């Protein structure tokens, strides 16, 4: 059977960028930068982009493009004993999919709440109490939150429709709608943000460089972590998307486009979020808001800021949560595609059947996160996946491809068809620099966890 391909180069890049740009860009990057040296964080961040992000994108794009199959299929073809690495990545993707979808569901619910600013004055209490019905421990489920169940199922429905329609008429088409909308929305919210009183102060807090932080290993690890998560690498996603590339494709060029567009978007989100934070800080007489990252930034602090806006509160609210929704959905779809393609390859089933079966099973599993204990379970799962799952997967992938397989064949695959010559840089980063950083990260993670 002939493998489906993307309709155009732009279609592939939009899909890859759609996977990359997600919740992590909007609520993780701004805080990371703020916490880890402000403007100076851009140094380790771009270093990580150039030594890990783009080289691994090139690696995963080449593998997918060359082998034309899912991750388990690709690794098995390189070496029969290594199929498990593909399944490990599939497993991580599954775990992420079943909680990521619930957060997308929250964003969808909050689009609705924005119309009436339903969260009221006490936005933290509204989020954890009225909305999540948060219980007192991960073992006390407290029953389903039906509003969240409905929104989560809606996100599954979107993914189902898109994946069922296929690569070109589903994934590509969806991203051609979501991505331009997302950019336009972000730009509108950004303009509103930077024209608020206090915005300049927020931006100064975000970008003021603190070079002393550059001496801390933690900051460098944070930069690499952000690049891995943000570019969706070591999750088999980029490999899977690249398996649908047509024969003649400039891999290196595509990797640069994806990496740079994603980082550009992150910086724009940083500007948006921190100009709004600057405004809130001014309103509070110089007091920074307490929660500046993660779900509380998005679902408590930003709603609080929206309450205080002099004009256009509803519009900004709707647009902000729509941006989370679109960013989240396109990433969510990309994770699901990893599973769909892997099981379609393994079981030799038509993809439509796999889409139905997968959506039913994963949809059911995801419901555990729609209970009152959802946020606790989510935090635990997220912690393990990001601190160990991805780091180990990335490290193993690089050891396998860089040291056990012959890297040179991969380079022979992409170099002749590229405008760029990657030279020593690519091999050096993929074989030495990034494995070293990942190994240090893993060791440090274990020490922190178990001592
Ligand atoms: N890259 C996405 C983001 O920044 C997250 C993601 C990670 C999506 C892994 C898919 C897989 O939010
Ligand atoms: Na996305």
From TrEMBL:
It holds the Pfam family SNF. InterPro entries: Na/ntran_symport, SNS_sf. Signal peptide: none annotated. Keywords: Membrane, Symport, Transmembrane, Transmembrane helix, Transport. PANTHER family: TRANSPORTER. NCBIfam families: Na_transp (NF037979). Belongs to the sodium:neurotransmitter symporter (SNF) (TC 2.A.22) family. This is Transporter.
């Amino acid at each position: 059977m002939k493998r489906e391909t993307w309709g155009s180069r732009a279609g592939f890049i939009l899909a890859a960028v759609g996977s990359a740009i997600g919740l992590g860009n909007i609520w993780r990057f701004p805080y990371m930068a703020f916490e880890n040296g402000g403007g100076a964080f851009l140094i380790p961040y771009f270093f990580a982009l150039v030594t890990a992000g783009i080289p691994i994108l090139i690696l995963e794009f080449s593998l997918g493009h060359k082998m034309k199959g899912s991750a388990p299929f690709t690794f098995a073809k390189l070496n029969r004993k290594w199929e498990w690495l593909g399944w490990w990545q599939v497993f991580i993707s599954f775990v992420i999919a079943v909680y990521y979808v619930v957060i997308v569901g929250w964003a969808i619910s909050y689009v609705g709440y924005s119309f009436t600013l339903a969260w009221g004055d006490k936005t933290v209490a509204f989020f954890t109490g009225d909305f999540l019905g948060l219980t007192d421990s991960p073992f006390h489920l407290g029953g389903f939150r039906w509003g969240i169940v409905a929104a989560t199922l809606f996100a599954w429905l979107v993914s189902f429709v898109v994946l069922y329609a296929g690569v070109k008429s589903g994934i590509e088409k969806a991203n051609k709608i979501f991505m331009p909308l997302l950019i336009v929305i972000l730009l509108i919210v950004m303009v509103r943000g930077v024209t608020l009183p206090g915005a300049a102060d927020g931006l100064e807090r975000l970008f003021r460089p603190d070079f002393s932080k550059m001496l801390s290993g933690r900051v460098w690890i944070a930069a690499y972590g952000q690049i891995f998560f943000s570019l969706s690498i070591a999750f088999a996603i980029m490999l899977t998307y690249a398996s649908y590339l047509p024969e003649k494709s400039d891999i290196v060029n595509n990797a640069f486009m994806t990496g740079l567009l994603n980082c550009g978007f992150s910086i724009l989100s940083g500007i948006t979020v921190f100009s709004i934070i600057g405004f809130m800080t001014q309103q509070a007489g110089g007091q920074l808001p307490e929660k500046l990252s993660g779900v509380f930034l998005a679902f408590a602090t930003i709603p609080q800021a929206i309450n205080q806006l002099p004009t256009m509160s509803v519009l900004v609210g709707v647009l902000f949560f729509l941006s989370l929704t679109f960013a989240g959905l396109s990433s969510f779809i990309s994770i699901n595609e990893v599973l769909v393609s892997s099981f379609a390859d393994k079981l030799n089933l038509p993809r439509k059947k796999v889409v139905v079966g997968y959506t039913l099973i994963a949809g059911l599993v995801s419901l555990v996160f729609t209970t009152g204990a959802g946020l606790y379970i989510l935090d635990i799962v997220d912690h393990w996946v990001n601190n160990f799952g991805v780091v180990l997967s990335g490290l193993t992938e690089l050891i396998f491809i860089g040291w056990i397989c012959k890297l040179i064949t991969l380079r022979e695959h992409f170099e002749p068809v590229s405008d760029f010559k990657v030279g020593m840089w690519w091999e050096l980063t993929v074989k030495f620099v990034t494995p070293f950083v990942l190994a240090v990260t893993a060791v440090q993670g274990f020490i922190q966890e178990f001592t």
